[in-house]
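User: I've been trying to design a sequence by hand for this structure and keep getting stuck. Would you show me what you'd pick, starting by listing the structure so we're on the same page?

Assistant: Good idea, let's start from the same input. This is the structure you sent:
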């Protein structure tokens, strides 16, 4: 058996693509446009292990005027986890792009953010936890993750 990918459905493909590429630094590995099935699949890999991918599935808007699919809050998905070289730097970078740090890295080890489609992303510090530092140390949790 070989692990291939995790799939998440998205409402805004461009916003979620930017989150994964410009925010987290993943690379788009391939894209499939299926006009007959009216969907787009976009795959991303992390630079350190691009073979383990995330697949974004975007179902095109209905052509009959029906409302788009409702995926709910996405809380039932759980989360995706990424090991990062500097948890404070990635959180500051994401925050500079307007991403809310839902669970700040107060412990120098773990943080949670959410994608534009409310998928929880766990960020874990590579190796030992970093010494606690501001502004993260005193930052409260925001929303849910």
């Amino acid at each position: 058996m070989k692990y291939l990918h995790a799939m998440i459905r998205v409402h805004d493909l461009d916003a979620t693509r930017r989150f994964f590429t410009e925010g987290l630094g993943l690379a788009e590995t391939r894209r499939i446009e299926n006009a007959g099935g009216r969907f787009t699949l976009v795959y991303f890999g992390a630079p350190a292990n691009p073979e383990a991918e995330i697949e974004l599935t975007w179902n095109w808007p209905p052509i009959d005027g029906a409302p788009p699919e409702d995926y709910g809050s996405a809380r039932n998905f759980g989360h995706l986890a990424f090991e990062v070289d500097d948890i404070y730097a990635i959180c500051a970078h994401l925050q500079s792009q307007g991403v809310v740090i839902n669970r700040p890295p107060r412990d120098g080890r773990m943080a949670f953010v959410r994608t534009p489609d409310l998928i929880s992303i766990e960020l874990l510090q590579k190796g030992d936890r970093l010494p606690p530092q501001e502004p993260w140390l005193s930052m409260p949790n925001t929303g849910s993750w």
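That's my pick for every position. To get oriented when you compare it with your attempt: The CA atoms of residues 102 and 142 lie 5 Å apart. Helices lie at 13-23, 87-96.
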